[in-house]
Structures are given as structure tokens and as C-alpha cells.
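C-alpha cells for histidine kinase. Go.
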Amino acid sequence: MLIYPSGEDLIEVTAEGPRINLDRHDYRLSAEERSRIMKRIPIPGTAWEAVDMHDPELFSSYRQQLLLQMAVILLLFSAVVMAMLYSLGRAEQRRRMAEQHKDDFLSNVSHELRTPLTSIRGSLGLVINGVAGEVSEKAKGLLDIALNNSERLSGIVNDILDLKKIESGQMELEQSRHDLVMLVRRAIESNHSYGERFGAEYVLLEAPDSVEVEVDGNRILQVMTNLLSNAAKYGARNDRVEIVISVKGERVRVSVTDHGEGIDEAFHERVFERFAREGDSSIERPDGTGLGLNISRVIIEAHRGEIDFDCAGRDGTTFYFELPVS
Ligand code: ADP
């Protein structure tokens, strides 16, 4: 229609013809009509404007069609997403079940292995020590190998069982008062022969007379065994592994230093992760599972302590843990 845009938008001509002779006040656009204006085109040489308004009915069937199409697309899209989520969920469920079966199998086998292993180790020890009669040097050498390997196997079995205990929150500490210096001395003594296999000598470089701590003695011995055996395994050949015990205020620190190749910087943040071992399987490395330090960390943290390492470049590593003095 043509309108006169005076501010009131007076209607001049509609489809029924000009309104010029009628009472203009009856023919102004209502607010609702104004809101439907799509375009205003000035008519050259006049003050009029051609106004195009949209008819709400005009697009309704088109809009309905569009909405229907959109609804169908949305429905299909949701169905595809749901199907994907469902199959992902099933795969995740299957993966978790397989993981659970594997874990259960591992821990059952480990349990079953523990008793026969203990008896094998005991018997081998007795035979080596001549309890069952004289043993030739050649046979003793072979029996030593068997004993070492059954000890290694027993260590792995215990690590796996510890892991299971940690996962199920069943690793309980039997804490009582201990002299940490005594515990460290005992650990050095009992790891002496393991160190000898690598030519490593454990030296207690500095220690106070005694330091009282409230700990589970066996668990602290386990951590010490892990640190001492790692120092022998990853230290230099014929290394002198130095152990220092120092008290700082309310904390006591035990550190174990070797002079091996250290730890590559890229591996630093993974050292305490489960099954983490430096390098890949193509490199020849000392035996190990990558569980020891992970378990050690759980043990030390359960004692409200902390465990970490210093490693400057490629010449040696110091692993240390700190515990509260009791
Ligand atoms: P494992 O010795 O059975 O592999 P650990 O958890 O005790 O497992 O150690 C994890 C890894 O950390 C080792 O495989 C080794 O790569 C690295 N590591 C541990 N101690 C030392 C050390 N003293 N010097 C160099 N690397 C070490």
C-alpha cells in the first residue's frame, strides 16, 4: 500500500483504491501493522512510500513444513547420537568387565602362588645351607640361581597383592614406635647380598643416634628395600650407594644416593606412576615391573610423609622420603 510517512503513517492507497477523500484519521497504520512492515520504498517525486507488509498466514504452511523437516532431522540426529552413546557405553562396560576379570585373575593367581613360593624358597635355602646333606659347588651355584629367581617372583607376587590392597583401600598400617635409624640399618643389612650382585656397597654416611617415628616397620623396610635395590640396579657398576638420615625440625629425611646415569628429564613426571619404566622394551634394562616406587609412595603418604627424588643431569640420583618425627 502507499502511505504518507508523516510520523503517523497515513494510508493513502490500498488495494481498494485511494483513501484521500476519506477521514484520514481512520486510516493510519496500527502498531501491530507497523510491526509487520518488511520494506519501505520511497516513491520518487512524491512524499509517499510504498510499504510492503508480510501476511502472517502467508508463510505459515511453509514454516510448518520447515519445522517438520527440522523435527525429523533432530529426531534422526538424536537417534544416531543415542545409538553411538549406547554402543560406546557397551564397549566401556565390556572393557571394564575384562579389566575386572584380569585383575581378579591376577590377584587369585598371586594368592595361589604365594604359599608354594614360600615353601620353594624355604626348601632351597635349607638345601643350599647343607641341611639335607652335602651340596657340590656346581649344584650350589644352580640352587643360588633358583633361589634368587624365586625371591624375585615372590617380590612381584607381593607387589601385585599390594596393588590390589591399595585399590580396594585395604592396605592397613600396623603403626608403632620405631627407631628409624635401626630400621634403616636393618634394611641395609638385609639388602647387602642383593647389592653385591651389582657390586654395590651400601654406606650409611650420616645418621643421628636414633630418631623415634610412629610407623609400620615392615612397610618402611619395604620402601627402603625398594630404594636400595633400585640404587644397586640403576646405579653405576660397583657403586658406593650413600645413605643419609637427617632430622629437620619435626621431620626426618632418609636419602639414598647412587652414581648411575640418573633419570631422563622426559621421564621425571612418570617415575612414581604404576608400571612406569624408563625407555622402551627394546632397551636392555635391569629386571623390574615399575610397581615398586608407586607402592612406596602410597606407603609413605599413608604415614603423612612424602617421597621424591633429585636428579641433576646424568650423574646419579638421590631418592628420599620424609616422615614426621614422633
Ligand atoms: P622397577 O625398578 O621394578 O622398574 P620402580 O617403581 O622401583 O620399578 O622404578 C620405576 C622406574 O624408575 C625404574 O624402572 C627406573 O626407570 C626408574 N628408577 C628408579 N630408581 C632409579 C634410580 N635410582 N636411578 C635411575 N632410575 C631409577
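Residues 226, 230-231, 234, 258, 260, 263, 271, 276-278, 288-294, 317, 319 surround adenosine-5'-diphosphate (CB under 6 Å).
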